[in-house]
Specification:
Blueprint lengths: L1 H4 L4 E4 L6 H11 L3 E4 L1 H11 L10 H14 L3 E4 L5 H10 L8 H13 L4 H4 L1 H8 L5 E4 L14 H19 L4 E4 L9 H11 L5 E2 L1
Parallel strand pairs: 1-2, 2-3, 3-4, 4-5, 5-6
C-alpha cells in the first residue's frame, strides 16, 4: 500500500519462505499494480520443504509447474534466468571473478546445472516456456544471472555472453508475441554505466532495461 501510494507502477514478490502461495495471492488481491515474481524461488522452496530434497534435486517439471502456478494466480511478469548456460558458466570460471554468481536465481541454476551435468531447462526448453506464457499475456523479465556483484567483475565475459543470449531470446519471444524486459547490469563503475546501457540497447534491440 505504501509503495502504490508513492506512485509505484509495479511490485515484486521475492518471497523465499513462509506461506509463499498465500503471500503472493494476498499481494495480487490488494492492488491493480503490475505484480512480478520469481517462480524458481518457489520451485526451490517446494523441493526442499515439501519433498525433503535439495534444491539441485528439482526436476524440469518442478520448474515449469512453479511457473504455471504463478501465472494461474495472475502475476503480470516473471523473472526467468534463461541466459544462464553451461557455456557461460565455463567462461566465468575460466576468466575468474572475485564474487562469482551473486544472483540468487542464477546461483540456484548454476548449482543445478553442475550437479546434474545438464543444460539450464529454461534455456534448453525456451520454446516450451514461450508456449506456457503466451495464453496468459504475461511478460518475461529475462534475469541477469551473471550480473557482476562488485565493480571489479563488471563487463566481463560472463556478463556480456549472457547479454548476447538474452538478445537472441528476446527476438524469439517477440516472434511469438510475448513482451520482454531485460534485467541488469549489476554493479558497474561510473565510467562503465554508459557503455553497459548502450550494449544492452544494441544487443537486446532496445528492449526495456530493468536496472
Amino acid at each position: 500500500r505504501v509503495a502504490v501510494a508513492a506512485g509505484a507502477d509495479a511490485l515484486m514478490d521475492l518471497s523465499t519462505g513462509g506461506p509463499i502461495d498465500e503471500i503472493r495471492r494476498a499481494i495480487i488481491a490488494e492492488t491493480t499494480a503490475c505484480i512480478g515474481s520469481v517462480p524458481l524461488y518457489q520451485a526451490s522452496c517446494d523441493t526442499v520443504n515439501l519433498k525433503g530434497m535439495a534444491i539441485v534435486d528439482m526436476d524440469v517439471e518442478d520448474i515449469f509447474d512453479g511457473i504455471k502456478k504463478h501465472l494461474d494466480d495472475g502475476v503480470d511478469f516473471i523473472t526467468v534466468h534463461c541466459g544462464v548456460t553451461l557455456a557461460t558458466l565455463e567462461k566465468m570460471d575460466r576468466e575468474g571473478r572475485i564474487m562469482d554468481v551473486v544472483s540468487r536465481g542464477g546461483s540456484f541454476t548454476c548449482a543445478w546445472m553442475e550437479h546434474n551435468q545438464a543444460e539450464n531447462p529454461l534455456y534448453q526448453y525456451f520454446d516450451r516456456l514461450l508456449a506456457l506464457v503466451k495464453p496468459y499475456d504475461a511478460t518475461l523479465s529475462l534475469g541477469d544471472g551473471f550480473r557482476p556483484g562488485c565493480l571489479a567483475d563488471a563487463t566481463d565475459r560472463a556478463q556480456i555472453q549472457e547479454l548476447l543470449i538474452l538478445g537472441e531470446l528476446t527476438q524469439r519471444a517477440w516472434d511469438c508475441g510475448i513482451q520482454v524486459m531485460i534485467e541488469g547490469p549489476g554493479h558497474v563503475p561510473l565510467d562503465q554505466i554508459t557503455t553497459n546501457i548502450q550494449l544492452q540497447k544494441r544487443l537486446c534491440h532496445d528492449a526495456p532495461f530493468y536496472v
